[in-house]
Amino acid sequence: MRRILFLFVCLLTVAASHAQTVDTTVCDVLKDPASFDGKLVRLKGTVISGFDEFAIKDATCGQAVNAIWLSYPEGSKAKSGPVAMVQLRLDKNSSAATVPNRTPVTLDKNKDFKQFDSLLATPHKGGLCPGCAKYTVTATLVGRIDGSKTTGAKREGTGKFTAVDGFGNLNLYPARLVLQSVSDITSAEIDYSKSAAVAKDDSGPDNIGDPVEAAHSAARAFGSGSPAADQLERAAAAFGKPGENNGVIIGFGVPNEARPRDEGKGNAGSPDGLLFTCTFDTERLRGDALTKAITHVGTHISDLREHGETNTREFEVHAWETVIFSAIATRQKTLTLPGGFVAWNASWPPDDRNKLVNDALTAFSSSWLPFAH
Q1: pLDDT digit string (tens) for the chain, length 373 residues
Q2: Which residue in 79, 108, 200, 352 is deepest, having the highest Cβ count within 10 Å?
Q3: Number of domains comprising the chain
Q4: Is residue 33 part of a domain?
């Protein structure tokens, strides 16, 4: 009798757990992310893993950000995710809001998840293409939604940042799904045929030394006073001088986990009250690709500190412009962006280069980035 009662209680527990899972869509979540905060949901979507993207995307939502950031529970040790990420936090002197006490999620590392993780972690090989994954993956995902009414960093008239909300890279995403399980997996190989035709083995130097110093060196290659030199130097300078406490923190690893401690205020100080935790996956950013990542992230930091708020697609395009300058400075033959867009080709006719770069960035931003105009 005791065993039967125990089984009955277990069945009730499982049934209650399933009853709490809300069937929804990416667009429904993005219409009102805060209303889904803390809920366990089931939805179907296409996951992209790019340079600083790891998101469930739906371009039909009509929102400023047409994607939900994807994270794994802390300690998952999965392979897939972005190769670079900037997380914003208030510094130790700020009066940060209380960190939400969310229900923990346990990841089911079954056969489906291993396939999912492996596909998204498979890199595209061929030329310099930082963070380029070979596949996108469409699947049914179950996980906890973390939702916010606002995103990004806010600052007051004195210039001090006083609030940080949102999730993912630069805290741009109003919703995050912390994955519990995945099923119904299908993959699609990204079309890199255009870059394959020109890139071949053009991957850049393997040994660059200090990547921040390499970014400074790229600026000097243009000579003082040129717009390209100024933009590259501005990006490199965002990391500060050796030993300087300017609120920028560099770490290494795969930035793919939701760690509750990262949402509270930090343990370091910052001149404007804002900390930038920059994480780079050096396993997938080898050699000169790491320098390109430094210039990209440095542009984000300097833009945010100058303007005070992020402007989604424009911020990404500006950062990739800096990477293109870096590629030119290091005599890179080609540069391909996630999604297969050739953003630089040294064989382009000089008179056509500006137009071809602009065309590539326009196509990349409208077809790959999950941000509206």
Answers
A1: 445 444 444 444 443 344 489 999 999 999 999 999 999 999 999 999 999 999 999 989 999 999 999 999 999 999 999 999 999 999 999 887 677 888 999 999 999 999 999 999 999 988 899 999 999 999 999 999 999 999 999 988 778 999 999 999 999 999 999 999 999 999 999 999 988 888 776 666 666 778 899 999 999 999 888 999 999 999 999 999 888 889 999 999 999 999 888 888 899 999 999 999 999 999 999 888 999 999 999 999 999 999 877 778 899 999 999 999 999 999 999 999 999 999 999 999 999 999 999 999 999 999 999 997 6
A2: 79
A3: 1
A4: yes
Question: pTM of the entire structure?
Answer: 0.91
CB 315 within 8 A of CB 328: no
The amino acid occupying position 275 is L
Q: How far apart are CA 108 and CA 105, in angstroms?
A: 10
Give the H or E element holding residue 42.
strand 40-49
What span, in angstroms and rounded, lies between the C-alpha atoms of 49 and 62?
21
